[in-house]
Backbone:
């Protein structure tokens, strides 16, 4: 009984935090997506009061959302950008993480520190810095600029989980593989790579999901032509004052991420038997 | 000769971990490198496997120098102490690994894997993953994997070290049977002398990078070449001795204040040689004071200490001149677990053909 109480006490604060700051807002958003936008922003009242305007519940936001291909198109485009960012991050991070993991113990800490050092300065300042860098190359306000910015900001989130995974690998496994006839290439693809799959999945999730919702980078580096779903959602709340549509878009994004996470988890389970 | 080491030396920071080692290992042998930790046996094994290269000397397999041949191209496999099974592969895939690496056709792989798993009695575990296996089972998968494509030589790096005592004994007999069964040459590294004695056709006792003695188990135990070997293998009484006479059948040894005793002849030993008498504790017979056997080598003593070990009791006995002897006496008499108690006076004696003279 004591153990159960302890468990409950330990899990209570984080559970409470998640319920308050994640579950409750999400439910509020679900509610908001079924309402009318208010005349001056916000939401129209549920019950008609005084001068009767639009009120009550409606499927308008969803009808609007699925009535126009442009929204689904922007959604799809966001997924492509997120996938591409994740792929480029993976390709850049993997050799680097391998290098750090293979360094002497003392130097590893320094290298990890260098990886997270950019976080010491403000995110927006760093994005503005990229505007200055990209400007002279005629790259600013292009899709390439968005991709560069996305990769730059999220690279550490790929390096760290990969490094943490690779650092744990037992070097004797590579000795054993070599002893049994595997050359350098075979040792990587048959031992190191499959064993690093949990790190790859973790890093990919940490990059893919934030990129999907990111609006500052496409806005600053992509200009007005190239908006992603993050910008679209932000616009509904701040510029168009259509909270229901913004909520519906958010929920669409959440649903797509959850669906993807479910597929990824199933894939991960089947490919990582015995690893984790 | 299958494997030949010629003057192999390996230094780390100026210190020779392996110091001019020369050895020959015959095809089909169960050969053991035995020594305390840090004696260089593991370094030697890594050089044979190809993970390290000698600074001097050569390693030849079937008469061909292995220098420059990386581990993956040597027909030599290793069973690592931690087994090093690939955690993301099933038992079957682990055992098939060397076959896949050497690009054997699939049709050949499956029966070889099955045969190899059969040999270690794990045919029913083919689909299981390593983390679901016990220590002994992991050990046997590692053996099956290393033997599946019949290497010329199998290296075993303290493979029984991680197992508990009961399992270790069981794996010992398994290893002997397996080696006889597959007929592959085993080079076994261990610091456990009982393991070495039980398993090996021949043993090389190593100390501080050098080989002290290469011999059969019986000769390593019964006729140690020097004090290190005598003391490292089992318990041993060491008494300073000088050869008085050496005739056709035996040696007369002068043990100083203890007087003269008789010891078996050993080739090359002549009158005047100084050295040590190595006498195993189980060679000493104990009898109550005054009930002496008719043995040539006899001394009066008192029991200083006893250690009851179940099957035997280990006695520490002080004899004339302050010498202390260790003796093991079997507890075979029913209802008489311990023959003597501390302080008892007794007679110690040993046969004229017991003991071994080591020249200094």
Residues:
């Amino acid at each position: 009984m004591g153990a159960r109480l302890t468990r409950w006490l330990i899990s209570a604060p984080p559970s409470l935090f998640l319920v308050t700051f994640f579950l409750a807002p999400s439910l509020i958003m679900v509610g908001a997506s079924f309402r009318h936008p208010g005349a001056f922003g916000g939401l129209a009242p549920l019950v008609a009061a005084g001068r009767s305007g639009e009120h009550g519940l409606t499927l308008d936001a969803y009808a609007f959302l699925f009535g126009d291909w442009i929204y689904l198109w922007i959604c799809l485009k966001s997924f492509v950008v997120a996938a591409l960012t994740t792929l480029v991050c993976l390709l850049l991070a993997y050799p680097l993480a391998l290098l750090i993991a293979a360094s002497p113990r003392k130097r590893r800490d320094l290298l990890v520190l260098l990886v997270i050092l950019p976080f010491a300065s403000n995110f927006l300042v760093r994005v503005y810095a990229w505007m200055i860098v990209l400007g002279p190359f005629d790259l600013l306000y292009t899709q390439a600029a968005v991709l560069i910015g996305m990769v730059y900001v999220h690279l550490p989130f790929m390096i760290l989980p990969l490094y943490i995974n690779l650092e744990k690998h037992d070097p004797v496994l590579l000795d054993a593989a070599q002893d049994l006839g595997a050359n350098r290439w075979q040792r990587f693809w048959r031992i190191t790579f499959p064993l690093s799959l949990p790190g790859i999945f973790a890093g990919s999730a940490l990059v893919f999901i934030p990129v999907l919702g990111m609006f500052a980078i496409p806005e600053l580096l992509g200009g007005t032509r190239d908006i992603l779903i993050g910008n679209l959602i932000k616009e509904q709340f701040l510029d168009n004052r259509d909270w229901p549509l913004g909520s519906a878009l958010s929920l669409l994004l959440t649903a797509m991420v959850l669906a993807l996470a479910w597929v990824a988890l199933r894939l991960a389970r089947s490919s990582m038997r015995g690893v984790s | 000769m299958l494997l030949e080491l010629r003057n192999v030396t390996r230094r780390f920071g100026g210190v020779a971990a392996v110091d001019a080692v020369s050895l020959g290992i015959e095809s089909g042998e169960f050969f053991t490198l035995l020594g305390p930790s840090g004696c260089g046996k593991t370094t030697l094994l890594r050089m044979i496997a190809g993970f390290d290269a000698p600074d001097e000397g050569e390693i030849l397999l079937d008469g061909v120098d292995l220098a420059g041949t990386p581990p993956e191209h040597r027909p030599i496999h290793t069973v690592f102490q931690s087994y090093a099974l690939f955690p993301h592969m099933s038992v079957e895939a682990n055992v098939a690994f060397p076959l896949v690496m050497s690009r054997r056709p699939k049709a050949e792989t499956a029966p070889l894997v099955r045969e190899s798993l059969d040999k270690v009695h794990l045919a029913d575990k083919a689909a299981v993953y390593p983390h679901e296996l016990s220590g002994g089972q992991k050990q046997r998968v590692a053996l099956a994997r290393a033997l599946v494509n019949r290497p010329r030589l199998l290296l075993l790096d303290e493979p029984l070290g991680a197992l508990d005592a009961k399992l270790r004994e069981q794996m010992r007999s398994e290893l002997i049977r397996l080696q006889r069964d597959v007929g592959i040459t085993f080079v076994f590294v261990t610091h456990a002398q009982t393991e070495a004695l039980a398993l090996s056709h021949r043993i090389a006792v190593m100390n501080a990078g050098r080989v002290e003695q290469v011999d059969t188990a019986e000769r390593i135990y019964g006729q140690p070449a020097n004090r290190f070997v005598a003391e490292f293998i089992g318990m041993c009484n060491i008494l300073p001795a000088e050869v008085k006479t050496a005739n056709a059948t035996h040696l007369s040894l002068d043990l100083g204040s203890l007087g003269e005793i008789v010891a078996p002849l050993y080739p090359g030993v002549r009158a005047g040689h100084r050295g040590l008498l190595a006498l195993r504790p189980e060679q000493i017979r104990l009898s109550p004071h005054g009930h002496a056997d008719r043995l040539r080598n006899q001394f009066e003593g008192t029991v200083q200490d006893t250690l009851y070990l179940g099957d035997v009791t280990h006695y520490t006995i002080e004899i004339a001149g302050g010498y202390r002897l260790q003796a093991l006496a079997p507890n075979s008499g029913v209802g008489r677990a311990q023959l003597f108690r501390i302080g008892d006076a007794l007679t110690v004696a040993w046969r004229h053909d017991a003991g071994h003279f080591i020249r200094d």
The interface with chain B takes residues 170, 172-173, 175-183, 186, 190-191, 194-195, 272-275 of chain A (CB under 8 Å). The longest helix of chain A spans residues 69-102. The radius of gyration of chain A is 23 Å.
